Amino acid sequence: MLEIHEADPALIFASDREGPGTHVLLIGIGEYDHLIDGVKEKLELADGMEQLDAPPQSVKALADWFLDGNFVNDERPLASLAMVVSTPEPYRYEHAAATIPNADLPDGSTETVLAAIRAWLSRASSSEESQTIFYFCGHGVLSGTQTLLCRDFGAVTEDPFDQSVNFEKFHAAMATKIPEYQIFLVDACRTSDSVVDMTTQLGGVGRRVLNGSSIKARGGTPARQSIHLATSDLAKSWGRVNGLSLYAEALLRALSGGGAQRDLDMWVGTDGLQTALGTYTARLAKAAGVEQEPDRIKSGRFKIHKPARVQVPVYLTCNPLEAWGSKFTLTTQRDGGDARSHEHDPGSKPDAREMEILLDPDKYSFHAIFGDDAPFTEGNGTTMVFPPEVPFDLSITRRLP
Length: 401
What we know:
401 residues; seven-stranded mixed beta sheet; 23% helix
């Protein structure tokens, strides 16, 4: 293991298991040396781009999720996990399941990002049936092609995009490589107006990362790719101060079961993943007072993993709305199963207009009972519960005079 670590300082977990596996690379660029408030700030190049809190925390949360044992795929189990993290100080990741001795991770400068990508691909190329998962969180711009900015973006004033990754060329080259199942998740903005103008004139910029291979080596067909982007063309991707990005929060929910597909026997598949990402990101963005609509530019269809348990958020509302002003007990009854009770007290939640309930997929009945002094008596309804979420408006009966 030490020899592997010396060859790839980004690697934090490696399995000894042979055969197909899932190889994960997480890149979180929060510290940018030459952007606003960077240690070598260049305001003429920053174009309003600042330091970011969300990327390091987002990749840590994802690494924790994988190493906590949440990823379940007997056909392609977790085989390796690597991280590149840009923070003001050298970043160390600790987890009981990590197999690589604790050491400073690569700092997100261009050469460390390129090296981590190439080492990740090398590991994944041990089997044609392997799965790769690539996640990038940081600044990005759209220039006709998506460009991902590394920590040292702008180091060369005359060619600032020499410190960035041309994502289009990267995934195009990956399509010619050995691993059959490839997932890309880009959690970055797709606009920055003056930068877009400049890069469009240049016809697309950023480092190539990989050269393509002969497609004949993989039977004449490209790899199956599912490429997910955190936001739409010329739009922003949002992150929390001292928290995760909205897209990372949505991704964790999607992987945990929100992306499960009935047609795949409740495996999280690439189609279900995108549906859940769109649903959860929109809800989180609305709650934060912003807009963000995820996109998908390649739609390879395959299974990712099968969660040990899938629970679906049901967002219950009441009709009429003023029913929230009274206490009530809500009972959820699974078809042929046990009942559960949920209490609503307007005294403790005066602004509540929605109740979130986590339920296993199935058919449910809902029954609300109000107190004798309430202007309402009860509410009844039934609905099917399946991922990614279920909005359910419960019809409430008014008490007769």
